[in-house]
Amino acid sequence: MPDIKITPLGAGQDVGRSCILLSMGGKNIMLDCGMHMGFNDERRFPDFTYIAPEGPLTSYVDCVIISHFHLDHCGALPYFTEMVGYKGPIYMTHPTKAIAPILLEDMRKVAVERKGESNFFSSQNIKDCMKKVVAVTLHQSVMVDSQLEIKAYYAGHVLGAAMFWIRVGSQSVVYTGDYNMTPDRHLGAAWIDKCRPDLLISESTYATTIRDSKRCRERDFLKKIHECIDRGGKVLIPVFALGRAQELCILLETYWERMNLKVPVYFAVGLTEKANNYYKMFITWTNQKIRKTFVQRNMFDFKHIKPFDKAYIDNPGAMVVFATPGMLHAGLSLQIFKKWAPNENNMVIMPGFCVVGTVGHKVLNGAKKIEFENRQIVEVKMSVQYMSFSAHADAKGIMQLIQYCEPKNVMLVHGEAAKMEFLKEKIKKEFGLECYMPANGETCIVNTSITIPLDVSLKLLKAESQKHSALPPDPKRPRVLHGVLVMKENSMVLMDVDDACKEAGINRHLVRFTSTLRMEDPGPASKTTEKLLQLIKARLKDWHVQLTEGSISVESVLVKVESTEEEQKSVYVSWDNQDEELGSYILGLLKTMGH
Amino acid sequence: MAALLKKRALAEYSQVIQEPPKPLKKLRLVKKLISGSSAAAYVGLLEKSKTSNDALQVLLRISDSLKFQEEDLADVIKKLAEHFQQENESAVRAKILSLFGDIGSESGADVPGIIEETVELLKKEDSHKVIAQGLSALLRLGKLLPDNTTIHHKLVLVAKEYLSDTSHYVKCKCFELIGELLPVGGASDSNAHAVMKQVGDYRHSEEPRVRSAALRTMLTLHERGLKLDSSVYAEICLALKDDYEIVRQVALKLVWILGQTYPENMITVSDSDEEIRLVDDAFGKVCLMINDLSMRVRTLAAQFLGTMTLVSPKFLQQTLDKKLMSNMRKKCSAHERAWENVTSGEWSSGKKWADDAPREVVEADSVSLMSSGSCGAFVHGLEDEYQEVRNASVDSLCSLAMHDPQFAQMSLDFLVDMFNDEIEDVRLKAIDSLTKISKYTVLREDQLETILGALKDFSIDVREGLHRMLSACRLSSKGCLQMCVESLLDNLKKYPMDRRSTWRCLQKIGQAHPELTLPLVPELLAIHPFFDTPEPDVEDPAYICILILVFNAAQHCPTMLQLFEEHTLKHYSYLRDTMPNLVPALRLNGSRRTADLVSVETGTAQFLDSMLARVEAAPNPRIREELLEAAQRDLTRLATIDSAVAGAAQFCALYIGSQLLMGKLLSNRLWANPSTLATQQGNIIRNSITLLLQHCLKLQHLFVGLREEDLAAVKQFKLKALALQLVYIVRASNSSALALCEHFLEQVEDTQRHLSDQGLQPEPFTASVFKEMSQLDDTKPGPVARCLLPLLQVSSPAPPPRPNIAVRMSTAVIMEPTGEVDAALKFTAGLVVGVPLDAELCNVRNAATLRVKVKYPDQQTQLIVPKRSDFRPITISNKEDSVTGDTSDTDLRLLTTVLVSHQVWTEACTIDISLALDLTDVESGFAGRKPSGSGVGKTDGDPCVIDLCKPVKVYVSPKPVKRGI
Question: pTM above 0.90?
Answer without folding.
Answer: no
